[in-house]
Design a protein that fits this description.
The protein has helices spanning about 35-45, 60-70, 85, 95-105, 120-125, 140, 160-165, 185-190, 205, 295-305, 315-330, 395-415, 435-445, 480-500, 525-530, 570-585; strands spanning about 5-10, 15-20, 30-35, 50-55, 80-85, 110-115, 130, 145-155, 170, 175-180, 195-200, 210-215, 225-230, 230-235, 255, 340-345, 350-360, 365-370, 420-425, 450-455, 470-475, 510, 535-540. It is α/β, with parallel strands linked by helices. The strands form 5 sheets. An 8-stranded mixed beta sheet has the order 16-17-19-18-20-23-21-22, sandwiched between helices. Helix 14 links the parallel strand 21 and strand 22. Helix 10 crosses helix 16 and helix 14 packs across helix 16. It is globular and about 70 Å long.
């Protein structure tokens, strides 16, 4: 195909890098380019390039200033930098693409739009454009190649081979890589001795998103493209929500969106040095954490899990209201010492936001305390997510409240910068398939971030009857080294429990060596970090069976509109243990 006069337009967020936004009033304050995206732009020098981006309240002058600061602005023609605030159009219809083709003065079929969101690519194709789901596949699309999902059985030295062939990984296990690539890669990989199975129809990556469905596999079966030992690999068409296939018996993390991420082929992430052993002299003083009480949890659960927010589902207006209120609360803590950022990403045609608050340390090595801010009530039927309530008090209002309370307490305890940086991050779209944490962890890995520990709190509020048992999940079968570091982190929490929360039972620690493995492996936001080489541990109520002899106490209101109960004292006990572990990790060298 002759592509000499084709014009390539890129989305900004999720495609070329990560936008950084201020807390309300929200404005673009930075942009962190992906290294691979910059390399692609270098390869396209001499070709006409443009941008099509939804920019919220920021006009072109403001966006261009940010892009200029990171060396991106002048790679794109001035007239082809098309921002929604300037033109009064968004990427939710073909119109903005028709306008862009007119500015480029070329026929629609000579235009290519590269963006990660399948819904937006669909509108570009309605305008007669070609599309690319990832920058690494632009050259193939320009050459007229069709794209395929692939399942690749890997051998030694496979990351370097896949990088060279422009294979974009979506999910990596110990033996298998799920990826998207041009169809030519099938022949090339087969010739190199790889076992390769094309998945789904030709060009499926152009108009679908790939998911791993576990408990919901039967409901989503008609979109299945491959069986996996963990469930069913499903290619959902643009506009289809995984919520539409929510089974009544779904467990935590019942589906996961498989995000394109070249960093999954990169060398292993920094492995943090072993933490110092916990001794009487290094153990924190429990009195220092006494202000982290049940009332600090209960107050926040009331504010974020009742009206006027009403629901934190990604399709509900309450989600954005919660984001803004969380950012404002973070900004007001500790006399404004926390640096607060909104980090947008796109999912299902919507712009959603993670919220990050940073307490800078002497080093950039970071300890993360995390939870998810969204909610769902899909097990209550009928359910209209755009308008019906989804209070999500336990899942995960309890974790949300705990992260805010921990941030408040640690900032008060650390008037001077700690040894390492502390970050408090609340992820969006966890219920859509760990999407927000995946976007965040992908950006961190691409930036080479040194993350020493991730402490995830997900459902820490349900305990109606004794014992006051709880769980820690550190399993990660894909990489034993990551699991070992995660298990060490869980061990620190275990040792701190009797000191910080003596009314709690010792936590049950789940890992891959148990019969049946760790049932939460890959099922909460901590796994997004483990997949990218970072040690991470999930703290939760007694949700799963085993490994202790006690029976679990699963929340009967899980994913229902009746998820309104939290035992705030129980949640505060778990939060104090996590706060103490974060404090130790942040204040202890190396």
């Amino acid at each position: 195909m002759d592509t000499a006069d084709s014009v390539v337009f890129f989305d900004l967020g999720d495609t070329l890098g990560t936008p950084v936004l201020s807390p309300p009033p929200v404005h673009l304050v930075g942009f962190q380019p992906f290294g691979f995206a910059v390399e692609v732009l270098d390869e396209l020098r001499g070709r006409r390039l443009g941008i099509i981006s939804n920019t919220g309240q920021d006009d072109g002058t403001a966006v261009d200033a940010v892009l200029h600061a990171v060396g991106l602005r002048d790679r794109f023609e001035t007239a082809l930098r098309i921002y929604s605030r300037d033109v009064g159009l968004r990427k939710d219809s073909p119109e903005i693409f028709q306008l862009a083709a007119g500015r480029a003065a070329v026929a629609a079929e000579r235009c290519v739009f590269c963006g990660e969101d399948a819904s937006e690519r669909g509108f570009a194709r309605q305008a007669g454009w070609r599309t690319a789901p990832h920058p690494l596949l632009v050259e193939d699309v320009l050459a007229g190649a069709v794209l395929r999902y692939l399942r690749i059985t890997v051998a030694s030295d496979w990351p370097a081979v896949l990088r060279r062939l422009r294979v974009v990984p979506l999910h990596v296990t110990a033996e298998t890589v799920y990826a998207m690539a041009a169809e030519r890669a099938v022949t090339e990989l087969t010739g190199l001795g790889f076992a390769v199975q094309p998945l789904g129809e030709v060009d499926a990556p152009q108009h679908t998103d790939l998911y791993l469905f576990r408990d919901d596999a039967t409901a989503a079966g008609r979109f299945g493209v491959a069986d996996d030992e963990a469930g069913l690999i499903v290619a959902l068409p643009a506009g289809q929500s995984p919520d539409d296939y929510h089974a009544a018996a779904s467990r935590h993390g019942h589906h996961v969106r498989l995000l394109p991420d070249p960093s999954l082929l990169a060398p292993a992430a920094h492995r943090p040095p072993a933490a110092a052993a916990l001794t009487e002299t290094t153990a924190p003083d429990p009195k220092a954490f006494a202000d982290l009480t049940g009332e600090t949890i209960a107050d926040r659960v009331r504010r974020y899990c009742t009206e006027p927010i009403g629901s934190r589902h990604v399709a509900h207006p309450g989600n954005r209201r919660a984001v803004d209120e969380i950012a404002t609360e973070f900004a007001g803590l500790a006399g404004g010492r926390l640096t607060v950022r909104l980090l947008p990403f796109t999912h299902g045609g919507r712009t959603l936001f993670n919220v990050e608050a940073t307490l800078p340390g002497e080093s950039e090595a970071a300890v993360l305390v995390t939870a998810h801010l969204d909610a769902t009530a899909m097990s209550s039927q009928p359910y209209r997510p755009e308008r019906d309530p989804a209070p999500g008090a336990d899942d995960d209002g309890s974790g949300l409240a705990a992260v805010l309370a921990i941030a408040e307490r640690l900032a008060a305890l650390l008037p001077e910068p700690p040894v390492h940086t502390l970050r408090f991050v609340l992820f969006n779209a966890e219920e859509q398939g760990l999407v927000g944490s995946g976007a965040y962890a992908r950006q961190q890995r691409a930036a080479g971030a040194d993350i020493r520990a991730v402490l995830q709190l997900d459902m820490i509020g349900f305990n109606r009857s004794g014992p006051r048992s709880w769980e820690l999940h550190a399993g990660h079968r894909t990489d034993p080294g990551v699991e070992s570091a995660s298990r060490q982190l869980a061990g620190e929490l275990h040792h701190l429990t009797a000191l910080m929360a003596p009314e709690l039972e010792p936590p049950q620690i789940y890992h891959s060596d148990l019969p049946g493995g760790d049932p939460a492996d890959g099922r909460s936001d901590h796994s997004s970090f483990q997949l990218r080489g970072y040690p991470a541990c999930l703290a939760s109520e007694d949700f799963f069976a085993g490994p202790a002899g006690t029976d679990p106490e699963p929340n009967p209101d899980y994913h229902r509109s009746t998820d309104t109960f939290v035992d705030p004292e129980y949640a505060a006990d778990i939060a104090r243990v996590v706060a103490a572990a974060a404090f130790l990790r942040a204040t202890t060298a190396p």
